[in-house]
């Protein structure tokens, strides 16, 4: 099995260029279904989730061409309506083809994504929103079958500002008849990016980045050339890696305004942060302070950074409390961190992180994407070698993670298992 081996104790130093946002790339790729003209996306990260989305779209009949950092998609010719389980199970975000397929073809069948390691991850809000636009949806054990002769704009209040539901509804409403008002919409930067791209394709969306979005349905959408925003989670992960090693790291090609809450929390820990127009420098501290964190939808503290901060706060002076408000089961990471010497007590959706620990070496498994990155972060500060398995999770969302950490001075190695039979193990994990 492939693994990463980290030997910690080296303060990271230098600059790292941040890739395009995974969570934006995937949705904008799905938006290509909405037009028969070419959609050319720049700044696309070379990660596994992008490959899986390319496969999902190719399976539907979309022509996909990838060159270094860009993807060209053409949904011309016969487009299929079915996203099969074999692909959807590899990446839950495949569910975002549902809205575009309904809008373009009036029909979609998408395999049920099911739960994953961080919780149930229901899709009821996606379904209810699309139903309010006039779709008839049958939710079976194995798949969701949706049909609509015509989609008609509606007032849709979301019970929770779900990122995926906002995106599915926004894309479907872009080609609906009349006006959709989406209330309690998600406000993540990736939502704004998708709206910007759709508007450039001829959609009429206003209010993206606020809780109320207004979408005037357009007759048709056309092709586009669009560069996606930097990945704020990748950038934040590198900053935490700088912080935990007491290093001096600069992330470049970022949009610091997308990361305000993470930067505030790193400042509270005692790190020195210097923000440039499109770069951020962090200098770690030898005496990190404990802090409390509550994950919340944007602009709150991102749930995706909860695990890397748990690694960092394990070394802080005093006790920190992390409250997880977005996913119900996102603390499985605490157990793995415990194998390296972390002391975290879970009480329902609170994690009490006992600081003042020193990580030792050991073998651990990445339970999911961000937790995997957080184990690498912990390894960078560990006293003995840390071996991380199930690294396919990390490769879903971080491009060349080990190589880029190496350029910052980390002693880290990616060990590939060349045994062909084992390569597919765990592929369907998340
Ligand atoms: C996206 C991001 C993920 C991030 C999350 C929250 C992608 C590919 N993934 O995931 O990295 O952690 O936003 O910022 O963009 N929920 C329901 N019903 C629904 C939809 C969601 O109950 O119909 C619940 C989920 O179970 C979860 C919470 O709402 O507890 C947040 O989910 P959501 O915002 O939809 O996250 P994703 O779009 O899946």
Give me some keywords for this one.
single chain, 430 residues, alpha/beta, 4-stranded mixed sheet, 24 strands, binds uridine-diphosphate-N-acetylglucosamine
Number of strands: 24
Strand order of the largest sheet: 22-23-1-24
Which structural category fits the helices and strands? alpha/beta
Helical content stands at 25-40%
The largest β sheet comes out as:
4 strands, mixed
User: What is the residue-averaged pLDDT?
Assistant: 94
Distance between the termini: 17 Å
**Globular, elongated, flat, extended or rod-shaped: what is the shape?**
globular
Ligands bound to this protein structure:
uridine-diphosphate-N-acetylglucosamine
**Which stretches are low in confidence, meaning pLDDT under 50 for 5 or more residues running?**
422-430
Amount of beta strand: 15-25%
Cα-atom radius of gyration: 21 Å
Number of helices: 14
Structure characterization notes:
- By secondary structure, the chain is an alpha/beta fold.
- It contains 14 helices and 24 strands.
- The strands form 6 sheets. The chain has a 4-stranded mixed β-sheet with strand order 22-23-1-24, covered by helices on one side. The protein has a 4-stranded mixed β-sheet with strand order 2-15-17-16.
- Strand 4 and strand 5 form a beta hairpin.
- It binds uridine-diphosphate-N-acetylglucosamine (UD1).
């Amino acid at each position: 099995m492939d693994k990463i081996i980290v030997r910690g104790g080296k303060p990271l130093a230098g600059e790292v260029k941040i890739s395009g946002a995974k969570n934006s790339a995937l949705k904008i790729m799905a938006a290509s279904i909405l037009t028969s003209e070419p959609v050319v996306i720049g700044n696309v990260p070379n990660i596994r989730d992008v490959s899986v989305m390319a496969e999902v779209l190719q399976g539907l009949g979309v022509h996909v061409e990838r060159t270094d950092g860009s993807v060209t998609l053409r949904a011309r010719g016969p487009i299929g309506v079915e996203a099969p389980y074999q692909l959807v199970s590899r990446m839950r975000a495949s569910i975002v083809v549902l809205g575009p397929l309904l809008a373009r073809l009036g029909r979609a069948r998408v395999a049920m994504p099911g739960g994953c390691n961080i919780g149930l991850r229901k899709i009821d809000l996606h379904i209810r929103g699309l139903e309010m636009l006039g779709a008839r949806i049958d939710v079976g054990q194995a798949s969701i079958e949706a049909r609509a002769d015509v989609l008609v704009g509606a007032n849709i209040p979301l019970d929770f500002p779900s990122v995926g539901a906002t995106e599915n509804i926004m894309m479907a409403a872009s080609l609906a008849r009349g006006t959709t008002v989406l209330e309690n919409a998600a406000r993540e930067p990736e939502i704004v990016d998708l709206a910007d791209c759709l508007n450039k394709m001829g959609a009429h969306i206003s209010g993206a980045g606020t809780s109320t979005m207004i979408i005037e349905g357009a007759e048709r959408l056309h092709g586009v050339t669009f560069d996606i925003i930097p990945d704020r989670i990748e950038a934040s992960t590198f900053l935490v890696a700088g912080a935990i090693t007491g290093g001096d790291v600069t992330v470049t090609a970022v949009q610091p305004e997308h990361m305000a809450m993470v930067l505030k929390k790193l400042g509270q820990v005692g790190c020195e942060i210097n923000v440039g127009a499109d770069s951020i420098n962090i200098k770690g501290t030898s005496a990190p302070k404990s802090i409390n964190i509550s994950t919340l939808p944007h602009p709150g503290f991102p749930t995706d950074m909860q695990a890397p901060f748990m690694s960092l706060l394990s070394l802080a002076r005093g006790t920190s409390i992390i409250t997880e408000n977005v996913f119900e089961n996102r603390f499985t990471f605490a157990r793995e961190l415990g194998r390296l010497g972390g002391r975290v007590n879970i009480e329902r959706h609170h994690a009490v992180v006992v600081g003042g620990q020193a990580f030792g070496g050991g073998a651990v498994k990445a339970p999911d994407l961000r937790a995997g990155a957080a184990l690498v972060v912990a390894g960078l500060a560990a006293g003995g070698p840390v071996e991380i398995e199930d690294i396919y999770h990390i490769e879903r969302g971080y491009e060349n993670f080990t190589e880029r950490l190496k350029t910052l001075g980390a002693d880290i190695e990616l060990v590939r298992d060349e045994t062909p039979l084992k390569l597919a193990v765990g592929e369907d994990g998340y």
